[in-house]
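Task: sequence design from structure.
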């Protein structure tokens, strides 16, 4: 349903990294998380490109970036769900370079890079099996049923060792033909199958949206963070030279766009998803409450009691920026 959106979780990590001080011992770890998330996103968009023009018998629909509460302690995230009248196909994208080896007992995968360094990773087949089980539980609890199948699509060229025969792993270039063959060979729907629309509507209605937990809850123990307007070139704090004019005292780079609006976005993504006008003025270094209120009212935010402005990433982001209020609604 529509193109894949830029991952809010990745954007949050990037903005956290920008606002961390250089001496913060967690900064390297956050950079590593960003690298992994960027590789994952690249793999997902590569899958999207190879699925363009996919034609299947009967009705079908693609859902992207679906997060579901399976149990109280278990949230599952699905890169792509292909939902057809004959069943659901979970499509997991992987962007892992190097030679790969699957090992049993315990099931795991080893990656060997060009330098010969070996990294142990989770088994992608086991991950897929857990997702199939979780989605099956979710459907059953709601009185829904569709057969569930799945595939792991690798967006890189890899040399494999220990890959079982008929393993649900394909190159992304084979993905479209594999799905067409799998759907065509699947039994047609019978009376026990839930309708495609019923399943899709329930998935969309209960999708959790981006992970907006605090970074502490996610295990990131960062130190103090930079407040105010930030230079996007060197990440130093900007100096105000006028009402709308800023300068970086460190790199002297030209300030593009509106750093105050970016500061507001960062507050929601990094600090907390609600703010008062007074808090915003203090954070962004605005001297006048009326100026802060003008900035807040320019953006599509939920207005709560006591002048609290609430942020919902699903509604209030347009790409990587805050969504502006349309002029005809001002």
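Answer:
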């Amino acid at each position: 349903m529509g193109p894949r959106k830029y991952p809010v979780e990745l954007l949050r990590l990037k903005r956290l990294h920008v606002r961390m001080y250089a001496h913060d011992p967690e900064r390297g770890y956050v950079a590593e998380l960003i690298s992994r998330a960027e590789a994952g996103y690249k793999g997902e968009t590569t899958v999207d490109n190879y699925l363009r023009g996919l034609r299947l018998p009967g009705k079908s629909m693609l859902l992207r970036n679906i997060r579901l509460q399976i149990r109280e302690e278990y949230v599952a995230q699905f890169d792509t769900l292909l939902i057809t009248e004959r069943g659901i196909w979970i499509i997991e994208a992987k962007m892992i370079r190097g030679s790969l080896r699957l090992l049993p007992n315990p099931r795991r995968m080893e990656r060997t890079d060009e330098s010969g360094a070996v990294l142990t990773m989770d088994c992608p087949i086991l991950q897929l099996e857990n997702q199939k089980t979780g989605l099956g539980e979710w459907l059953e609890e709601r009185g829904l049923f569709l057969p569930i199948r799945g595939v792991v699509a690798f967006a890189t060229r890899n040399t494999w060792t220990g890959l079982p025969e008929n393993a649900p792993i394909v190159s992304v270039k084979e993905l479209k033909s594999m799905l067409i063959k799998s759907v065509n060979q699947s039994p047609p729907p019978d009376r026990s199958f839930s309708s495609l629309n019923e399943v899709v509507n329930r998935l969309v209605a209960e999708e959790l949206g981006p992970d907006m937990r605090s970074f502490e809850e996610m295990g990131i123990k960062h130190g103090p963070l930079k407040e105010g307007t930030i230079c996007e070139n060197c990440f130093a704090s900007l100096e105000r030279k006028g009402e709308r004019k800023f300068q970086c005292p460190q790199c002297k780079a030209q300030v593009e766009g509106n750093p105050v609006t970016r500061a507001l976005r960062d507050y929601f993504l990094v600090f907390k998803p609600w703010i008062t006008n007074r808090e915003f003025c203090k954070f962004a270094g605005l001297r006048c409450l009326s100026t802060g209120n003008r900035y807040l009212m320019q953006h599509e935010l939920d207005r709560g009691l006591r002048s609290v402005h609430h942020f919902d990433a699903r509604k209030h982001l347009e790409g990587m920026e805050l969504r502006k209020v349309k002029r005809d609604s001002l």
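The radius of gyration is 23 Å.
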